[in-house]
Amino acid sequence: MDSIVVRGGAELHGRIPIAGAKNACLALMPAGLLTDDMLTLTNAPRLSDISTMAALLRSLGVAVETRDDDQTLDISATSLTSTCAEYEIVRRMRASILVLGPLLARAGHAEVSLPGGCAIGARPVDLHQYAMEQLGAELELRDGYLHARAPGGLTGGVIEFPMVSVGATENALMAATLASGTSVLRNVAREPEIVDLARCLRAMGARIEGEGTDEITVEGVERLGGATHSVVPDRIELGTYLIAPGITGGSVECVGGRRELVAAFADKLEEAGLSIEDTADGLRSSRANGRLRAVDVVTAPFPGFPTDLQAQMMALMCTADGVSVLEERIFENRFMHAPELMRMGARIDVQGGTATVTGVARLKGAPVMATDLRASVSLILAALGAEGETTVARVYHLDRGYERVEEKLRACGAWIERVRAT
Ligand code: EPZ
User: Fold this and answer.
1) Is 234 left (phi over 0), alpha (psi -120 to 50) or beta?
2) Cα–Cα distance measured from residue 388 to residue 392, given in angstroms and rounded to the nearest whole number
3) Does the Cβ of 117 fall within 6 Å of ligand 1?
4) Which of 165, 188, 330, 378 to mutate to test the pocket of ligand 1 (most atoms within 8 A of CB)?
């Protein structure tokens, strides 16, 4: 397993290109199942999760070709050879559950392995199941697989989500596009990835209104056609690199970033003392001299503070002036980066879903362990400002969601290198 070694202390100055959003692309790719024409996705990120989704689609008989240095994906579900998402693939990536809705809509049945939990939580799929049942499907859990069937096709219905779920919203939205009749989805997720998916589905011929609000209406159509769609920039990668100069000092321009993708988050960074400015090509984050102020954070569905940026914010608060209280309200176990940051000298007290961080002058480099995708990048951020050398082990977590981290940071002056496992 590869490691990443960082020697902290260098200020960051330069430009970082922001890639297409992993979490948008992981929903856009299964949307290709909804048509027998070609769906082309441009600005796709080059990440292991994207390769895993491509492997899953190929296992269903879908042709997935890449070009433009893997940033363009041509997806052709001309004919399916299987409707079964095998455990072997699904266990590696929970987002595999996003083939459920499209397969039901396209083929009238699907067998999808339960994803199983992951480091940050149990990650149940009951809301996905509920949404499909509201569209007329019958689902049964057997041998670790969800067996779903809608022999006469899906029928439009009302889906009242009891809690906001990004993935269940995406499955419901995709399934409803080919259901007969109109569907109303309430208390839906409002993330930019949902808006991006709706735009792509509309380009394919779907009739959708309301994306980005808490209620979406879908009028089912007979069939969808192909389209070419550019993946929205990754707001989590953007937020991660906006934080970096807050830890190291300096100024970084995130090319392709847009403030509306990270509004609440950018407000928090400014409250802490970072300056976040729009530029012609994106967003610039700068830290003038002096320590940042500690600020409090509560994670919430969009447009609130993203749970996927909580770990990175904790890294920033480790050396802020004062006490910061971070409340994680989306996942039940998303503070695994805290003990690793404490190995570097951070002062953090975790009680249930609340972490209290008391800022220290500076962290010290140490060997640390990545545990999940966002925790791993928070350790890299902390290492950039720490005294001495940090080795982050198990960076395969990192490669799931961040393209070429060491290249992007080295280009801005960081001392960082990847050590290939022998
Ligand atoms: C998506 O996961 C993202 N993944 C996650 O990003 C992100 O953290 C999450 O949304 C929240 O924003 C992708 O888009 C591929 P949810 P998802 O359904 O859809 C509970 C990353 O780091 N829930 O909105 O799985 C669930 O347990 C990843 O890129 C149910 O109870 O998240 C959680 O507590 C991590 N039943 C809450 O809802 C369900 O059926 C929000 O989950 C589904 C979810």
Assistant:
1) beta
2) 13
3) no
4) 165
Name 417's bridge partners. 5
Catalytic residue numbers, as ranges: 118
Which pLDDT value is given to residue 117?
61
Average the pLDDT over 139-153 and give the result.
94
- 240 C-alpha vs ligand 1 centroid, how far in Å? 19
pLDDT on residue 123: 72
Give the separation between CA 279 and CA 287, rounded to whole angstroms: 16
Q: DSSP character for 262? A: S
DSSP letters, 302-369, are TTSB-GGGHHHHHHHHTTSBSEEEEE--S-SS--THHHHHHHTT-EEEEETTEEEEE--S--B--EEE
Residue 415's beta-bridge partner residues? Answer: 7
Q: Which atom of ligand 1 is nearest to the CA of 374?
A: 22
* Pair 241, 269: CB distance under 8 Å: no
- Cα–Cα distance list, 162 to 30, 117, 126, 380 (Å): 25, 21, 11, 36
